[in-house]
Each structure stands twice: as C-alpha cells, then as structure tokens.
Amino acid sequence: ITKKRVKVTVERADVCVVPAAAVIGESVVAFELANALIEKFGGDSISEMQRNYRGYLKYLKQR
Q: What is the pLDDT of residues 10-27, one digit of tens each?
C-alpha cells in the first residue's frame, strides 16, 4: 500500500436498476395478458382455449 493519491470515478448504482425493471415489467405485462386471455377464452385445456378464440374471431367477422 503506497497511500498514493489517485483519481477515482464515481458511478451511480441506481442506473443499473432500469434494465432489470424492464424485464420485470415485461413479465408482469405477459402475465396479465395471459390472465385476460384465460378469463375471456378459458377452458380446461389450451386446445379448448384456442377453439374458443377461433370461434370468437369467426363471430367478429360475421358482425
């Protein structure tokens, strides 16, 4: 240890939170979209949900 003075850089740690928050936000949005799809087209299986969704699209075309 020389005790020689050196210049240090100051780095803000809070800027590192933004990318992590974006990943969390994306996951929350995906989760809520999935919940909305389940609520609207739900069934006992994914294939039943897909059938309900296709039926809904067909219904919209007829309107």
A: 777 666 777 788 899 999
**What confidence score (pLDDT) does residue 49 get?**
96
* Cβ proximity of 29 and 22 under 8 Å: no
Q: Let me know: does 41 contact 49? Beta carbons within 8 Å.
A: yes
**Average pLDDT score over the chain:** 90
- Alpha carbons 63 and 32: distance in angstroms, whole number: 28
Whether 13 and 22 have beta carbons less than 8 Å apart is answered as: no
How far apart are the C-alpha atoms of 41 and 52, rounded to whole Å?
6
- For residue 25, give both structure tokens: 């936000």
In angstroms and rounded to an integer, the radius of gyration of the C-alpha atoms of the chain is 25
